[in-house]
Amino acid sequence: LLVRYTWPQIGDDTFIFLRYAERLAVGDPTFSDGGPAVEGYSSPLWAWMLVLGVWLGAPLVGFAKALGVLWGALAVAAVVELGRSLGLTPGRNALAGSLFAATAGLLFWAPSGMETPLVAALVAWTAAGLADGSPGGRNRWVAGAACLGVARPEGPGLVVVALVLAAWRQGRLPRPVAG
After folding, report:
1. Where are the alpha helices (DSSP H) in the chain?
2. Would you call 172 exposed, middle or buried from its count of C-beta atoms within 10 A (0-12, 13-18, 19+)?
3. Is 161 helix (H, G, I), strand (E, B) or coil?
4. What DSSP designation does 27 have?
5. Could you read off the pLDDT of 153-174 as tens digits, one per residue?
6. 57-112: pLDDT as tens digits
7. Distance of alpha carbon 169 from alpha carbon 175, whole angstroms
8. Max CA-CA distance within the chain?
9. Rg for the chain (alpha carbons), in Å?
10. Is the Cβ–Cβ distance between 140 and 133 less than 8 Å?
11. What percent of the chain has pLDDT over 70?
C-alpha cells in the first residue's frame, strides 16, 4: 500500500538506464549514435535486467518500476531471513521486517526504476547467508556477494567485506580482543 503512494515518482537517472538498455539489447553499447562506448550507468547488473525487459517487449518504464518493487519485496524477505539467521524471536523478526519495509528509502527507491532495491536485497541476502552458517547459507552469501560485485560501483568493496566476515566466521581470522 505504501508503494502505491510513491509509485508516480521516477528517478531521473532511470532514463539513462532505459536508453542504455534499449541500445544494449540490440548490441550497441553507446548512449547515442556515433557516441563513445562507455558505461554511463552505475549498475551493469541492473542495466542487463532492463535489457531483459526490452527483449520481452515490456513497456520499459513500468518494467523498471515493477522490477524495483519486486527487488524491494525481496529485500524485505532478506531482512526477515537475516533476523531468523540471527535468532530473533518471530515477533521481533516480524517487527524488523515491517520497519524495514516502511523505511522512506526503500519506499522511495523501490518504484524509482533504479537499482537501489536490488542492492538492498543483495546486501541483506549476503548478510543472511553469512549469519546462517549452513551450506545453504554459504551458497546464499557467495551468490549475493558475486552479484554485488557488479550491482554498484561500491560493490567490489562490499564483496571484500563479505569475504573478510566469512573468513572471520570460519575462524580463519582472529577474533577481536576486547580492550
Report:
1. 2-6, 14-24, 44-56, 60-85, 90-101, 104-109, 116-132, 135-148, 155-169
2. exposed
3. helix
4. T
5. 888 888 888 888 888 777 776 7
6. 999 999 999 999 999 999 999 999 999 988 999 999 999 999 988 888 888 888 99
7. 9
8. 61
9. 18
10. no
11. 97
